[in-house]
Amino acid sequence: MTTPQAWFIGECMIELRPTQPLHDAQHMPRAMAQSFSGDVYNTAVYFRRRSTQVESQFISATGNDSISASLRDEVVRQGIGTGLMAVHPDALPGLYWIETNAAGERSFLYWRQQSAARHMLDDAHAEVLMQQSAQCSLLYFSGITLAILDHARRRRLLDLAQAVRAHGGWVAFDSNYRPRLWESRDEALRWTRLALAQASHALVTLDDESALHGDVDAQACLQRTRAAGVGEVVVKLGEQGCLVQAAGMDAAQAVATQKVAAIDTTAAGDSFNAAYLAARRQGASAIAAAEAGCALAASVVMHPGAIMSPEAMPPV
């Protein structure tokens, strides 16, 4: 019997992070820590750590250079397959610089316009994925995935999502709205709505949804998303936890999160999504899955960078 697969489609970039805070007016050079990160990739890593019964595949495109080779090696080291990744010989991975303030809130500088990931899902790559779509029991992607692709590649991604649903798989989507990546807000709205039309699960953040859709509160966000046809919706609220509703629940239910002293909020939402989906795939209720998501996110924000060490992972 074929092992079910979870496919995570998105971008993984080179992450540069100062190892000490900027505290002098001279802006002297600082030592940097280098790793790899990206919203969908972060979710793939944490999902793999929480769900060993499913074969995880990271789907993207890299270059053919030494850094791209290191990136692919790191994906493999995390226990995630790279067999469905594409290679573009003339492109390099994207790069971003992350800075955190005293409260753990982060800001970013990006160099990603020529990222190799933008070249995934060409005709040949998409055809390979379509041919294997019956093996995919969970397809996960984000609004950032959509934003970095051209229109033809976006359409192929949504066609793939439709195929996965037709085979009985889940399609999970996080809008992760980043205005700078989109041609316009109208374009973001159009493609986000098309993605929701294919999604069985939506895991969204209220701040993003308010900026994109104008939702006034979590309840309005949840109701709008469910009205779009998504059967299971989680609205993430940061320090306030989340609001969740799934099939069989008469009403949405709030789930609280642990209060922690955050030092870096990078990947909080990504790790929540991973723990939530892993728990749901293993039969947990939506409420129990939301509690698992909150617990992992609370742990992640107490560590620097997007991906903490396996040894730091909290118990299930």
Any descriptors?
37% helix; 316 residues; single chain; four-stranded mixed β-sheet; globular; eight-stranded mixed β-sheet; 14 strands; 21% strand; alpha/beta
Describe the fold and architecture.
Helices cover 37% and strands 21% of the residues. The protein has helices at residues 39-50, 66-77, 123-131, 143-148, 151-166, 185-198, 206-213, 218-227, 268-281, 286-300, and strands at 5-9, 13-18, 32-37, 55-59, 61-62, 86-87, 95-100, 106-111, 136-142, 170-174, 201-205, 232-236, 242-245, 253-255. The strands form three sheets. An eight-stranded mixed sheet has the order 4-1-9-10-11-12-13-14, with helices on both faces. The longest helix is centred in the middle third of the chain and has 16 residues, at 151-166. A hairpin with a 5-residue loop joins strand 12 and strand 13. It is globular. The model has no long low-confidence stretch (mean pLDDT 93). Helix 1 (39-50) packs across helix 9, helix 3 runs parallel beside helix 5 and helix 9 packs antiparallel against helix 10 (286-300). It has 316 residues and is an alpha/beta fold.
Mean pLDDT: 93
> What is the CA-based Rg, rounded?
18 Å
- The number of helices is 10
Helical content band = 25-40%
**Helix/strand/pairing category:** alpha/beta
End-to-end Cα distance = 28 Å
Characterize the main sheet: 8 strands, mixed
Large-scale geometry: globular
- Beta content comes to 15-25%
Neighbour order of strands in the largest sheet:
4-1-9-10-11-12-13-14
**Could you list the spans in which at least 5 consecutive residues all have pLDDT below 50?**
none
Return the string of H and E elements.
EEEHEEHEEEHEHHEHEHHEEEHH
Q: Let me know the number of strands.
A: 14
